[in-house]
Design a protein that fits this description.
Keywords: Aminopeptidase, Cytoplasm, Hydrolase, Protease, Serine protease
Radius of gyration: 29 Å
CATH topology of the largest domain: Rossmann fold
Number of domains: 3
Number of helices: 23
Enzyme class: hydrolase
Oligomer: single chain
Main location: cytoplasm
Shape: globular
Function: Removes N-terminal dipeptides sequentially from polypeptides having unsubstituted N-termini provided that the penultimate residue is proline.
Helix content: 25-40%
Subunit structure: Homodimer.
Amino acid sequence: MKINQFGIRPTEYPTMIEELKQISFYEEKENVTRQWFSFLAKSFPEVQVTSGITEKYQLILATDELTLAEFEETKQPVTKEIFYTVALQLLQFQVEIDFKIASVLEDAKKIGVFVTEKTLSTKEALIEAWYYLLTTHTKNGLSYIDLLASRGYYAERRVAKPLFFNGKAQAVFATDEIIREVVYVEAPLDTDEDGKRDLLKVEILRPVETQEGLRVPSLFTASPYNQGTNPEAGDKATHEVNVPLTRKEPNQVSYEEIQFSRKDVQLPPEREVSGQAKYASETFMREKSYALNDYFLARGFAAVYSAGIGTRDSEGIQTCGSVEQTIATTAIIEWLAGNRRAFTNRTDNIEISAWWSNKKVAMTGKSYLGTLATAAATTGVEGLETIISEAAISDWYQYYRDNGLVIAPGGFPGEDADVLAESTFSRMHDAGDYLKIKDFFNAKQKEMVNLQDRVTGDYNTFWDERNYLPHVKNTYADIIMVHGLNDWNVKPRHVAQLWEALKEVPVEKRLILHQGQHIYIHNMPSLDFNDMMNSWLSYKLYGVENQADKLLPAILVQKNTVEQTWETMEDWVPDQWETRYLSDTQLSENKQTGNASYQDKLSKEQFSIYTKDIAKWETEIKEEESPLEGHRYLGKTTPLERAVTLSGQPVIKLKIASSVNFGMVSVQLVDYGKAKRLKEIPTVLELKGLPLGNQWREEDIKEFQLGGITSNKMITKGHMNLQNRTSSWKTDELAAGEFVDVTFALQPTIYEVPKGHQIGLIVYGTDFGMTVRGNQEITYTIDFEGSEVQLPIYNKANKEVN
């Protein structure tokens, strides 16, 4: 087991003493050993009597031959070796499994535990070692002080609320008394055109201490899934993908012609207020929560959820990424910041304010949830201090399209904006409400189908409205971005482009890149994600001067070759570029001549197999000896003489011809070489093993683990319509048999290719997981003389030398 911690704040000794007193851990004792046993006695909050403490000591080894209870009887001074032998056991590491007593200091450092350089001959050294022990992660994913809190350490102690230790909010709030209430925020919208402004249901969970005057910040999660989904309707709306690619008529469209500009809309007047209320008149039993919010509920934050327009108990219609959906999101933030109205229900017009709020808001969530956080941040809305956006879309075109092609998010062939709107229009759940809105919504859905344009796949005004990148310049909120480098649902380009755009904006930004798919990472014991977010949110929302802005690295990236290893980077850019040229079977260091052809059409049997089993196609397209031979180009480098790390967007340049007057190109970059590789989906280590507070909710503990030996792994991929060589909104001419030059970037990556492996390039037509599948009689030919791949190289070794 290895732990990686980036959220520990270096602390001066006087501050350590002050903080230990604040959490009721420090009582001055006469010598080092007694001071240590004073700390140890507080480490078993479940035990109420001295004999029970002694029993606990008997379960812990202090040396190879003595239990902690026996060592206490000897009255010998504590040594560093004994301190860390006991400390590792308190941190849930096991003797002989995770560490050996004979090599405890060395093993502790390998695990990642802070080990003091001082001898423990003074109380100051002992106290410092214990202070940092409290901040150190346990084997199962919590810092030690958080583990003690989950076992009831704060339950019987009178401490300040909120309480901060090492700059992080502590779990001192009573989660069994959380107040749950519902309000309805009036948004400056009328998306269902009923002549009334849309009211949006908001579910709030806040500490009971707010009733006594405490003002708390809010973690707001905007989730269109929150009030339910319509899987049957979504399946029915899903588009057929076994359709042919078609020729597009060339045009000279410029970006200015398709640029989105919002038209002024005459809104209905605001509701007339009939009265005021301090407390809501509606509650709820159990929200569809996000575990990171649950973690902070025990630490003095409110959790706020809203599904937005077109969802159950709210008004309006679903619009999938439109400006209206962004406005609906910012309306909730404005209410939390005291700048918008809400009502106790949708009938009585009784106004209610967020009087319990300190007017500081952070947004959280993954996928669509993180997408709306990104959208809100790019408006500069007042009150939004920061967002933690995970696997978020930054440009909806690049979610459902790519370079003039209709491209499905990985795992969802046939999905599109209208399908997602249909799936999340949860007003459908209430038959009486749906009856009133059904015809209007269906008409708008038909309009969306037309505007999203699955025929050409081109970028147009519909998609420009749903591109947040041009508005990044308006951002005032600091941003933490989290993304999977193997996420083929919301592909890595989304976060890479947001990261790049934010370089021109004077806000704090941080980027965490993991080796997983479309997942959360807050429950992985190898990384102190929750601690880092705790430092960040305590700093941003409570104003704690904990140096979080300097503590958290610019970029944190998980290594792909070993388990439980995270490294820091300053930027997501290459140090140099290396070019490899295509030839018959090799990616050569020198330009080559000749050509290679491949056929897109498969036999009916083979085509049927792959449409029903995309995973089989994904495997066989990469195999060196493959049934798809003749339906792809494959070239590989010679075995690498040293490990190579790719960092950024590989660029493919092809001189290519299609046998017809239209066509597409798909590309994969592949790591060839037998090795155990990290699984892209983390393994569950313990069900409900991560407590989020004392007698509160739990999360499963998960971790990325190495799988069995495999012969290859896709590094990244990309696609292009051969008629969109100039831009995604302009259609170029293409003649049958004509060689044209195409250049496009693949999805960005950070990936180490080990020594002895080969980098492979696969070029093909139909991507069974993402493109349309026409199974058409098309032959593609690559001219090697004009074809190359440019590899972005990150040279960490040189950086370490310099």
